[in-house]
Design brief:
The protein is α+β, with helices and mostly antiparallel strands and 289 residues long. Helix content is 28%, strand content 29%.
Amino acid sequence: MADKAGQAEIRSIDISKVVEGYADVDIILKNYVRVVPTSAREIRWYQKTAGYLTSPTTTAVTTDMIETASKAMPVVIENSYTRNTSYVKKFFASSPLLSIEDLNDSDPDIWGDIIKDTVRAVNKKVDARISTVLDAAGCGTAAATGNGWNVDADGDPLLDLLTAKESIKSYGYSTDDLVAYMNQAEEKWLMRWLISIKGSSIPGFASSRIENGKILEVVGIKIVSDPNKTTDTVTVFSPSKAVIWREFMPITSAVVEEPGIGKSVRVWCEGEAIRPNPYAVFKITDTIN
């Protein structure tokens, strides 16, 4: 039976509510960055030079002149910025046209499944884009200690995480909210190292780091694993400083009706990730040999 226009509108509203209910499905990395609306597709933003302010050097003067003599004039110090321009990206997917016959008599909930899975696919690409910007060249980086986290002889995940924390702090950023973003393969080797390597030599160490089978945090860094993250690299960053997701259009949906034939659903969002503070990020590479 063909849908009437009024009925289609009602169902469209219902579907929109369903999509909104799934809006956060499979979002992991986006939960750890700042989300700021933008009203334009062209985004101009400024990247402040990292580090502490020091006095400029001149001929024969190479020391920082902030420390000076009594009655001396103060040295002038100032920030420097680099202007950047980014453009929002559109993340857009559609289901196939599902016939009214299939929608009416299929045992699986094919309509509910395709809505949820289309939202998941869009969210996965958004997370992947944020990850690409987060890991872009220009941040702090170092290879893992020894031959990686899966080599008992010389791997040391704890030292690598401390190195990342040290680097971020050296540029003047707070380390109170750090996240270590990793693939589940790195999480596996980190958990094994905590339990089998250090847990056996430091009583209570492993049990204090792990609760209900999940790693909570190590050396003050929250552990977040995600299949979307490429393996062999662990990225430690400050959620409050590292990356901003500039959202031009939030997750949105539309139902495309073909009366008497069927319908499909489209899901999209628009935005772009920017990294105003690259040294609030540190990449640990070569983590798995």
